[in-house]
Structure formats: structure tokens, C-alpha cells
Amino acid sequence: MINKYAYGLMFAVLTVSFACGQQVEKENNRRPRAGAGLTHANWIANRIASKEFLEKVGIQGEQAAKLKTSMEAIDKQSAKLNEQIKIAAGQQAQIAKKVLAEPGANVGEIMAIIEKIGKMRTEQAKLATQRLVVIRDNLTAEQREKASALLSEEQKKWREDKGKAAKNNRPDAPKGW
């Protein structure tokens, strides 16, 4: 009886370990710049930081420099977290191999790493929110309104283009269905 449950637990740990490691690898491969995740807050921050967008919204000079400096500080923290998560995920995968190979092996160490990674992901979410706060604090109400309108327009266009691409990639339905 115990062996059946132990193997079930080990299977669950391996699955979680593998998924976490794969998630970190996928996220690192998709990031357009260090510290930029795929969350909505990060997409907004990345877009607002572009030279083209700054010009469209009327952000320049000292205001643009302050915005850039604040974002770079957050990006530096985020990049450090990304690296720490990558290292922890590697450790987690190594320990998972041991846990799965040795019936009755202690899972405390792997559970501690999972908790550590969870805390770092929480810090990433906080940094994403800090990016939005930096934007809020460095743009005037008029600039925020203009930025919001531009972002909404770009997001709508992106969704339309994505929908068209998905539709074009689908094969036609079989005749007679």
C-alpha cells in the first residue's frame, strides 16, 4: 500500500519538476529583453519604453530619462530573479531524479525548492506591478490617456492579425460535412 502511494507522490513530484523546468526555459526563450516577462503589465512597460511610443505620447527629455532609469532598475532586479529561478529549477530537476530513483527518499529538499521558486515568482509579479506604478508616476494624466488609447489600438490590431493568421492556417473542412 505505501509503495503505491510513494510512487504516486514521486510521479507527481517529477511531473511538477519537469513542468517548472520547461516553463522557465520557455519563458527565457520568449523574453524580448532581460527581465521582461509575458504578463500584460510587462508588455505595456516594454511598449511604453520604446522610442517610437515615447515620441507618440510626447514623453521626452528628463521625463523619458527618469522613466528609462526606473524601468532599467526593475529590469535588473527581474533579470536577477530569472537567473535565480533558472538555477533553482535545475536543482529541482536534479533532486527529482534522485527522489524518483530511490524509493522512500526524503522529498523535503525538493519541496523547499518548490517553495523557493514560488516566492521568486511572487517577486516577479510584484516587479510587474512596480513597472505599472513607475508608468503611472512618470506620465501626466494626458499622457496616460494617450498611451492607453495607443495600447488599446495596438492590442486590437494584434488580436485581429492573430485571428487572421490562425484562420489562414486551418485546413478547409471536408466537403459534405
Report strand %: under 5%
Mind summarizing the main beta sheet?
Answer: none
The number of E-state strands comes to 0
Distance between the termini: 51 Å
- Mean of residue pLDDT values: 80
Q: Can you tell me the overall shape?
A: flat
Low-confidence residue ranges: 5-17, 22-38
Percent helix among the residues?
over 70%
Order of helices and strands: HHHHHH
Number of domains: 1
Rg estimate, integer Å: 22 Å
- Helix/sheet category: mainly alpha
SSE diagram, text form:
Blueprint: H1 2-30, H2 40-49, H3 51-57, H4 61-101, H5 108-138, H6 141-169
Provide an overview of this structure.
The chain is mostly helical. The protein has one domain (2-148). It is built from 6 helices and no strands. Helix 1 packs antiparallel against helix 4 and helix 2 packs across helix 5. The termini are far apart. Mean pLDDT is 80; it is low at 5-17 and 22-38.
Task: Summarize this structure briefly.
The chain has 177 residues and is mainly alpha-helical.
What are the defining features of this structure?
single chain, 177 residues, mainly alpha
